[in-house]
Amino acid sequence: MDYRISDEQRAIADLAGDLFTGNGDTPPPWSVLEAAGLPQLLVPEALGGVGLGQVDMALVLIEQGRGLVATPLWRHAVAALVLARAGRTPAPGERLTVAVESDASAERTGDRWTLRGTARAVSGAGDAAKAVIVAQAGDRAGLFEIDLSDADVARVDGILTDGEAASDLILTNAPAQLLDVDAGWLRARAAACLAALAVGVARGAVERTAAYVTARHQFDRPIGSFQAVAQRMADAFTDVEVAQTLAMELAWRIDAGADLGNSVEVTTYWANQCSHRVAHAAMHLHGGIGADTSYPIHRVLLMSRALELMLGGSRQQIARIGERLAA
After folding, report:
1. Nearest to residue 62, comparing CAs of 106, 109, 16?
2. Spans of all domains in the chain
3. CB 137 within 8 A of CB 128
4. Which of 43, 101, 115, 304 is an S-S bond match for 275, by CB 3.0 to 4.6 Å?
């Protein structure tokens, strides 16, 4: 893997950085993201998309995380790519979302499929017209497209830990369309997106904290000059560098069609470890102001925790690797 990014990729990252500015208080309108082409980033050009890859998406999501912006960009982008791979084209401007985990089961009657069960905490579902859902079809997981306006789809709206709007989707024999796309392929894409977001949140936390410990003085010197503070910052920086390297490698493997092996679990594990440790370090080094909800650093902890829950716990990733090695 060549870890250098091209001028085009740098321009995409810079564009995303310009859009995801501030501290996440006012996410850019969806129309602005659409005008920049970000929701269609992964869709092939022949189908009206931008035609870029997972590495490009990772660069965008890192910038989104740095800006602490909670918006369902990756869910729409991945759902749009799934439909494109399945030969289905959403209507222009149609909002999409994806539920990677659910307890839904699929039942086939003739050539019709229906889904029964619940997909929880699906961000973007309130504004989406359709959703791609992973459901159990017999002894295997399948991907299904559902219309969220259908009478057999009930929505319970709420707010996630990081302030993002989300919904529980309750399916009662909801009509569905089976998509010819592997569920494992989708899960790898979702993990790559969430890991990139987590890395971005952590990198933004390191940058904000570095600025704070440089400006904050105690005993007539910056607190960042104290050895204990400097060591904590160095550990946080190292965590981010390791997690970002793994996140970019996973994205590259997906684009290259390479064997993923344990890459998804290893990347997820380190994204979780990084976001957890860095968020706590940032809160600690900010002192009392870190817990002040009028100051943005508390959002780092909230967003990193929300992403950790979406990614799945670190122990779960280690267990999966162990099961694979023991097989």
Report:
1. 16
2. 7-77, 90-180, 184-326
3. no
4. 304
Has this prediction a pTM greater than 0.90? yes
Exposed, middle or buried: residue 45 (CB in 10 Å: 0-12, 13-18, 19+)? exposed
Cα–Cα nearest to 277, from 225, 226, 237: 237
Q: What is the dihedral of CA 101, 86, 164, 284, to 10 degrees?
A: 70
Tokens for 324, please give them: 């694979």
- Ranges of beta strands (E only) in the chain are 96-99, 105-109, 112-123, 130-137, 140-147, 153-159, 165-179, 217-218, 221-222
- Which structure tokens are listed for 278? 């860095």
The SS3 assignment for 39 reads: coil
User: DSSP string spanning 171-220?
Assistant: EEEEEEEEESS-HHHHHHHHHHHHHHHHHHHHHHHHHHHHHHHHH-EETT
Superfamily of 90-180 according to CATH: Butyryl-CoA Dehydrogenase, subunit A, domain 2 (2.40.110.10)
Contact 202, 264 (CB under 8 A): no
Task: Report CA torsion sign: 131, 79, 98, 14.
Answer: negative
Instruction: Specify whether the CB–CB gap between 132 and 179 falls below 8 A.
Output: yes
Q: 231 is written with which tokens?
A: 């060591």
Q: What is the mean pLDDT of each run of 10 residues along the chain (327 residues)?
A: 88 96 88 96 93 98 97 98 92 93 95 96 96 95 97 96 94 97 96 98 97 95 96 98 98 96 96 96 94 90 94 91 91
Would you tell me which CATH number, out of the four given (3.20.20.140, 3.40.462.10, 1.20.140.10, 1.10.3300.10), belongs to the domain 184-326?
A: 1.20.140.10
